[in-house]
């Protein structure tokens, strides 16, 4: 298949074949002849750089307004200094500057539009007009906000009395200047030196004339420029920028400029689309005279792919574990050329770089000698011999001997030519003069890459034979998912899901095989009505046999993950090797989200508490109700133990279970509420003698029933709250709205394939272990009654604790019904379980306070009542929870 690689919108930024001095030669007929599937490029692309500039502009506007609001003295002094300096300017200069800027600010955009239309670049003009219209709308909205709703300090910084009318104020944002700036930025005028110089002269003249004549303030001019600039890049990112990526035809022309005579170019597809931006587009090029070439084309758009992922890695990981998130094309070209030459000089087999060139202002190409061969990923299992594995390690050792880190030793970066020689490709992301940590990360990455193909035993054995046991053992702290490549982490996650699925299938199969025995036993009991008594020993023996079969099935199905297998193989040679993972993360996503959510919650609480006088409030508190709240909070731990043990058929000490629930009050301070308690209870049951799979299933069954009870109670109390003040039994509009919202969410989840698959996978994994466990519990009705009763009692304790906290600070005129308190608590508890902050800090306080105010409680009572409730249920139990945690740990119960 042959097709032209040109794009109809690719009119700028790429070399034109007709402009080259050698295009008149006969070989020009071959230019643009591209074999293979050269897909048409999209007309527009969304540049991450535009989004970053948009965010930077928004941040600059926020900072400017904050300075204007809180640094009133600084803004006033700055205005006085500028007015004093500009007041000494000659009147003639002021008039000339004002006239010139008024004319230029209209003519310059029109002139640039004409120049773009002549070059058939009308799309840019359309983008500029759209940006100008949007900027005008933003200026009108800003003017309205400053005039009617902004604080007085911001209004003083952005406006001043108009020279023509002292009773009127100047505009906070110039309605004509911001659209012009947005237009000129969106059309790309700032990227052209001559037009950029004209643009700055016009802006400076206009700012000077407006300041001197008193029609603006310095902050108003800065805000105008920022709004125009921000709206322009927001428009460009929303609608996309014209695509100027070089095509195959451009590549053929570029090869001729560096002395080659190309005949055809075939596009080579990349194996991993997620990391294709790091490798560039590859072509196989045949020449008229000479061996073929391998050409890599890197352009700005492709280089920017994955920018936000790399930026997050730079933020989350320590500096030695990451590389720059975004390089210029010149830097990328120089780095790849340097790594190619350095690898060959080190004695490693790497593609030989023979030429480089720019393909216009937005792309570069790198020309290599053709290597041929296939990647490790494309080889069959029987083709991956031990000699090939050792050869791969020899190449890595050659790089590391010169302190060169590859940084991406995945399957498609390891090439095997026709003679079986291993060649390392994709050196673009590597580093020279690398530290020990980077070299150890390379070793761990290659161990996992080879282990995915040949298993941990062969991968480790080949590494030991080349690198030695000490070098391999030193990489164990780097053997963690975050130190591996993005594609490798995805493969490991997929394997983990497959292992979990096999374990679930084994458990269900063991359960299905035990069904006939139970059915036969049930039929025998029904037929043997004369005895009227079941042989309890036989029933218990059958249950033990069933559990034993399920446990054996889980043990047989349980598999170690690849990283654990590699560790075990290395530890057989070096038992004393360090296995503790190295600290690579600077900040974890959960920590960042917790900090942001906690800050928002703290801000909300502080704004609520600033208007409350706690001295008189505490002095007038009803201490009897405070003691009652303490007792209800303490009783909640007994109820939590009942709710857990009700779904555990095995015998577990009750008092120790209560102590575990107290210990959970310490754990949930350092972990989200929905995570810490589940992990601790699972660990506690395992230490109490319950099999790991059954412990997980018991906690899962408890959580599942708890969720059902929570929803039923929320609907029931919500119904009562809606009808308690009316004689009819019609539900309130809030309940109806809530039910409709839930129905809409269910429809959305079931209609979107991705969401439906996500939910079904999670629910299936939950029920796979829970259903057999629930059948065990159903055979003991007293256990089920204990579990459900404990859940109801747990909710009742918390509701009564919150109600007692309200009564401690309120009186008869400020009381609310128990049903309303229950609805507020259930809603706040649900949000706290979903919040990523430890213990739901911030989210629960905000929800409870807003909910109590919404049901009619004064803010002066709601805020301290919530604080007392959270103090008794979250903060005060931390110390006894820590003591209980340590006690259970010493007793090997956790």
From TrEMBL:
It is a multi-pass membrane protein. Keywords: Cell membrane, Membrane, Transmembrane, Transmembrane helix. It is found in: Cell membrane. The chain crosses the membrane at residues 54-72, 92-114, 197-215, 221-239, 592-611, 623-648, 693-715, 735-755, 784-809, 815-832, 839-857, 863-885. It holds the Pfam family LPG_synthase_TM. Signal peptide: none annotated. Its main location: membrane. Residues 1-40 are annotated as: Disordered. This is Lysylphosphatidylglycerol synthase domain-containing protein. It comes from Streptomyces edwardsiae. The lineage of its organism: Bacteria, Bacillati, Actinomycetota, Actinomycetes, Kitasatosporales.
């Amino acid at each position: 298949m042959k097709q032209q690689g040109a794009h109809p919108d690719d009119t700028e930024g790429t070399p034109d074949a007709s402009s080259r001095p050698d295009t008149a030669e006969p070989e020009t007929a071959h230019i643009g002849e591209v074999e293979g599937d050269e897909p048409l490029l999209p007309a527009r692309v969304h540049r991450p750089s535009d989004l970053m500039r948009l965010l930077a502009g928004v941040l600059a506007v926020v900072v400017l307004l904050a300075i204007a609001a809180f640094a009133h003295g600084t803004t006033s002094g700055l205005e006085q200094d500028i007015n004093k300096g500009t007041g000494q300017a000659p009147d003639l200069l002021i008039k000339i500057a004002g006239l010139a800027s008024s004319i230029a600010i209209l003519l310059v955009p029109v002139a640039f539009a004409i120049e773009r239309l002549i070059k058939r670049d009308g799309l840019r003009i359309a983008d500029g007009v759209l940006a100008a219209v949007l900027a005008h709308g933003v200026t009108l909205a800003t003017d309205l906000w400053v005039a009617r709703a902004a604080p007085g300090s911001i209004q003083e910084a952005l406006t001043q009395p108009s020279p023509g009318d002292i009773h009127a104020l100047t505009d906070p944002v110039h309605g004509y200047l911001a659209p012009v700036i947005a237009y000129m930025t969106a059309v790309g005028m700032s990227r052209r030196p001559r037009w950029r110089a004209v643009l700055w002269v016009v802006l400076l003249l206009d700012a000077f004339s407006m300041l001197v004549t008193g029609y603006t303030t310095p902050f108003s001019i800065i805000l105008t420029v920022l709004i125009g600039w921000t709206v322009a890049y927001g428009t460009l990112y929303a609608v996309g920028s014209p695509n100027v990526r070089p095509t195959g035809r451009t590549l053929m022309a570029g090869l001729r400029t560096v002395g080659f005579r190309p005949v055809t170019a075939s596009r080579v597809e990349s194996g991993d689309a997620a990391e294709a931006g790091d490798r560039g587009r590859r072509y196989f090029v045949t020449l008229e005279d000479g061996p073929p070439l391998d050409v890599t084309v890197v352009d700005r758009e492709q280089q920017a792919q994955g920018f936000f992922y790399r930026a997050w890695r730079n933020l989350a990981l320590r500096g030695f574990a990451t590389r720059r998130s975004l390089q210029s094309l010149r830097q990328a070209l120089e780095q790849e050329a340097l790594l190619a030459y350095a690898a060959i000089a080190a004695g490693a087999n790497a593609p030989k770089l023979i030429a480089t060139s720019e393909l216009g202002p937005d792309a570069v190409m790198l020309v290599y000698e053709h290597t041929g061969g296939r990647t490790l990923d494309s080889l069959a299992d029987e083709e991956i011999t031990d000699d090939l594995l050792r050869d791969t390690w020899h190449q890595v050792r050659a790089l590391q001997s010169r302190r060169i880190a590859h940084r991406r030793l995945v399957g498609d970066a390891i090439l095997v030519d026709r003679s079986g020689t291993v060649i390392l490709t994709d050196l673009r992301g590597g580093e020279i003069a690398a530290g020990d940590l980077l070299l150890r990360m390379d070793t761990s990455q290659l161990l996992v890459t080879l282990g995915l193909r040949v298993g941990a035993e062969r991968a480790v054995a080949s590494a030991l034979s080349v690198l030695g046991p000490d070098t391999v053992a030193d990489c164990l702290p780097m053997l963690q998912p975050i130190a591996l490549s993005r594609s490798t982490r995805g493969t490991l996650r997929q394997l983990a899901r497959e292992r979990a699925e096999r374990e679930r299938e084994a458990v269900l199969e063991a359960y299905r095989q035990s069904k006939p025995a139970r059915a036969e036993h049930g039929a025998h009991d029904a037929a043997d009505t004369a005895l009227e008594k079941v042989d309890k020993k036989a029933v218990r023996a059958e249950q033990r046999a069933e559990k034993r079969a399920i446990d054996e099935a889980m043990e047989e199905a349980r598999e170690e993950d690849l990283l654990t297998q590699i560790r075990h193989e290395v530890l057989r040679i070096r038992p004393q090797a360090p296995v503790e993972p190295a600290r690579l993360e600077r900040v974890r996503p959960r920590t960042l989200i917790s900090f942001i959510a906690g800050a928002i919650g703290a801000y909300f609480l502080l704004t609520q508490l600033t208007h409350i006088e706690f001295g008189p409030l505490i002095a007038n508190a009803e201490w009897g109700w405070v003691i009652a709240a303490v007792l209800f909070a303490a009783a909640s731990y007994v109820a939590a133990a009942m709710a857990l043990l009700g779904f555990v058929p095995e015998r577990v000490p009750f008092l120790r279970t209560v102590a575990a629930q107290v210990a959970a009050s310490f754990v949930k301070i350092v972990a989200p509420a929905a995570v810490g308690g589940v992990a601790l209870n699972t660990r506690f049951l395992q230490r109490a003698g319950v099999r790991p799979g059954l412990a997980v299933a018991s906690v899962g069954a408890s959580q599942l029933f708890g969720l059902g009870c929570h929803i039923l109670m929320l609907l029931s109390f919500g119904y009562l709250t809606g009808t308690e003040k009316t004689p009819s039994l019609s539900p309130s509009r809030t309940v109806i709205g809530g039910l409709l919202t839930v129905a809409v969410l269910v429809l959305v989840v079931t209609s979107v394939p991705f969401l439906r698959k996500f939910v079904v996978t999670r629910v299936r994994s939950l029920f796979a272990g829970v259903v057999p466990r629930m059948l065990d519990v159903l055979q003991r009705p007293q256990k089920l009654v204990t579990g459900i009763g404990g859940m109801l009692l747990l909710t009742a304790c918390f509701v009564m604790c919150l109600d007692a906290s309200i009564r401690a600070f309120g009186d008869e005129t400020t009381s609310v019904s128990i049903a309303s308190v229950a609805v507020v608590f259930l809603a706040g508890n649900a949000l706290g379980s979903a919040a990523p902050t430890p213990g739901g800090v911030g989210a629960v306080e905000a929800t409870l306070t807003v909910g109590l105010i919404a049901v009619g409680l004064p803010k002066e009572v709601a805020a301290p009542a919530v604080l007392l409730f959270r103090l008794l249920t979250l903060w005060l139990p931390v110390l006894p929870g820590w003591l209980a945690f340590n006690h259970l740990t010493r007793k090997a119960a956790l």
